[in-house]
Specification:
about 220 residues; mainly beta; Jelly Rolls; 8-stranded antiparallel beta sheet; 7-stranded antiparallel beta sheet; 15 strands; globular
């Protein structure tokens, strides 16, 4: 009887936790898979690129997806001192807090040993700086951190933020809307290589002013 009671309790616990474990699949997007001239993408899983819609729109681009993806051009390789900048407008609230931002120092981006550093924000007003080496990632800035410089999403899920990564001789600075939110010694990051963008799961973003400028 005691065993039956324990099994029943475990079953009830499983039912109770189902909503927290509810699956959140990548959303497919009609018209995905084609890219503006010069751009390349890679999803985290290396598959489902047809679920990534990335199109030129106005003076910028619009992305709707789908799987976590990086976007880059070989022409945006940078070395020494440089700055990468982009303005993102999150057009609607994702189901969960999802991140987007800049990558830099990218190399072997279509290979198993891909490497880059990246600077992310998300709609709840938080930021994170990380490194990727192959399939492994590690945080440089610590846990997700709230900063007043980041415009959090409004009631409709919309927010606009300009992100910049400034690579100098001895340190790398990370700015949102012109205000520094983090800085670290240059040897903590991958800085030599391609700069681009990263957009996470099921986001809808408008992108303006992406640029990489050598100092």
């Amino acid at each position: 009887m005691r065993t039956a009671t324990c099994i029943a309790a475990m079953l009830l616990l499983g039912v109770a936790t189902l909503p927290a474990q509810e699956n959140d699949p990548d959303n497919g997007e009609a018209g995905g898979g084609s890219l503006p001239a010069g751009w390349e993408i890679r999803t985290d899983k290396g598959t489902n690129q047809d679920q990534v819609k990335f199109v030129a729109m106005g003076q910028g681009y619009h992305v709707t997806l789908g799987p976590r993806t990086i976007f880059y051009r070989e022409a945006d390789a940078a070395h020494g001192a440089y700055a990468a900048t982009v303005t993102f407008t999150q057009t609607q609230a994702p189901r969960h807090a999802e991140a987007y931002g800049l990558i830099f120092g990218g190399s072997n981006l279509q290979q198993d040993d891909q490497r880059y550093s990246y600077f992310l924000i998300r709609g709840n007003g938080q930021f994170l700086v990380k490194n990727r080496s192959g399939s492994e990632t590690s945080s440089v800035s610590g846990p997700w951190t709230t900063h007043s410089a980041i415009q959090a999403q409004d009631a409709s899920g919309k927010s606009t933020n300009t992100l910049s990564v400034e690579v100098g001789e001895s340190q790398v600075r990370f700015l949102v809307n012109g205000e520094e939110v983090y800085a670290g010694p240059i040897d903590q990051f991958q800085t030599e290589g391609i700069a681009g963008m990263r957009v996470n799961h099921n986001l809808d973003l408008h992108i303006d002013g992406f640029a990489v400028e050598q100092s």
